[in-house]
Design a protein that fits this description.
It contains 8 helices and no strands. By secondary structure, the chain is mainly alpha-helical.
Length: about 200
């Protein structure tokens, strides 16, 4: 692995954290999240002008970055790569909002929305749609049971009990950064299970 000699000390520290994260170090994920969460959030807030959307897009951007960490090459700063992912994702989100329904909770993967509440797109009662939504939620619960206990509890608290990230951190007595990093991992595992089973939400 050849490093760019012009990288700052902070960028070199990031690269060391990335290498640890690639090897499964959850603390390294949490540290990367802590370093850039606020900066990413404020950049996205300027783009979407909505604090809730900015928070969701921040989490989604980190999720995509962490999921594709092996694609990062250290010939440029990790922060540059991360900000590019975040801004591109926000642009895609803005485009989608112009002609589609708004998701209540974006998942890490745009193609698979994991939030049961986000499956409901209209207030108009539709028996067939309600039945399909119930089946999807049942499928979701069945798949969640296949996760390891720590990941299962994170998904259940976030998506079925609709806890905030802060509430989950309090409930599980974990640092907020760790909760978010592990939730990324839980979502990724969930998506992999769904894909391998051939099921679609």
């Amino acid at each position: 692995m050849e490093l760019n000699k012009n990288l700052s000390d902070k960028a070199l520290q990031d690269i060391a954290l990335v290498e640890k994260a690639k090897n499964g170090d959850q603390l390294a994920y949490a540290q990367l999240l802590e370093r850039y969460r606020d900066a990413i959030y404020f950049m996205l807030l300027k783009m979407v002008n909505n604090p809730v959307d900015a928070e969701d897009l921040t989490i989604e951007a980190f999720g995509k970055a962490f999921k594709n960490l092996k694609q990062y090459t250290p010939n440029f700063a990790f922060s540059t790569w991360l900000f590019k992912i975040a801004s591109n994702n926000a642009i895609d989100y803005i485009r989608k909002q112009r002609g589609s329904t708004v998701s209540l909770d974006q998942s890490v993967d745009e193609e698979d929305n994991l939030s049961p509440s986000a499956l409901i797109q209209s207030d108009t009662p539709d028996p067939e749609a309600s039945m399909i939504n119930e089946q999807k939620i049942k499928l979701m619960r069945d798949v969640v049971t296949k996760l390891k206990p720590r990941y299962r509890s994170l998904i259940e608290l976030r998506y079925f009990k609709e806890y905030s990230y802060d509430e989950i951190a309090d409930h599980l007595e974990l640092p907020l950064g760790t909760v978010k990093a592990q939730l990324f991992r839980a979502r990724e595992l969930l998506l992999n299970i769904l894909r391998s089973s051939g099921e679609k939400l």
